[in-house]
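Q&A log
Question type: sequence-to-structure
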Amino acid sequence: MVSHIQNQLGVLLRQLHTENTELTSVVKFADQVLGIAVSVDKLADKLWHLYGDLPTNQNYTSKLDEELGESEEGEVEEGSMGERVFDSEELRNYTAPKPNQQSGKKNFLGVEALYPSIGLPCIGVASSIDHYMTYKTNGVCPDDWVVAEKLIVGGCDPLPRRRCFSRSPQRYSKPLPINSSLWITPAGTNILWTHYKCKDYSCLISNQTVRRRGFFKCSDCFNLSKRGWEVPSNVTASAEFTINEVLSLKPGEIRIGLDFSPTTGTFAAIMRERNVTIASATLNLGAPFNEVIALRGLLPLYVSVGSRLPFFDNTLIWRYSSMFCLIGIALFGQKGSFG
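Response status: OK
Response body:
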């Protein structure tokens, strides 16, 4: 039955494409039919996963066919259930298929519509994601990154994009040049401190504030005068590999890597001095990790441990991690999980 509907919708779309596409009413109707076709395709995919391949004998009537054949109206309601999970109109608009400008024709990606994605666990926190997507379109975004981070940590990742402008610090100043920004403490005026326990940069590195900084891992991360991973010259034996020892294994070939840790980019800064590009993936776990990475002129990735990293296979040469490996070692250890 579902395949029959798909075939009929395909025929209808082909007929509409032969009509005068200059008429606004025809284009609008074609877009509506395409939206219905996309919904039916999604329903067919769900049914395939639930019931597998059904017998092709026309004389065979399965229990599923009987259930679907009871009411065409019920079938339409079943297909739209996913659309009613979220109350936010902005979120429903975001997740709706985006047909190409030339309706029914495939774009350079080979598809007739684009499908914005959100994390599957977002469905389980519908009220929270609805709250997150309640904002003034084309205005200034709410200062609610803490809400976003909780959603990301809970698996609601990727989050939907919002059509608003990110807030900026009121006293923002021009960042330092890249040749000096790696190891000089950035200006605290370039950070929004609203949701942090520390309200200035000195709080992040002072010994007097250790117990009230708001973060406890990577205690010296924000002290940019301390270079980790550098072994003193008088040390003759060590159980660890130095950066230079690793780079010497493949001279000139190690050029791209990833640091997945609670970090302010110190590893990436050391590697930059050795002509190796490192992306630093971390969350703001009680402190402005991502902001400091960016102010140092390095690349921050704001993703959770459970995310699939946006790198194609065999494009990363070096992956470094510290504490996050203790949390997600099962993920990192799976075959193909490095991508």
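Response note: Residues 53-82, 326-339 have pLDDT under 50 and may be disordered.
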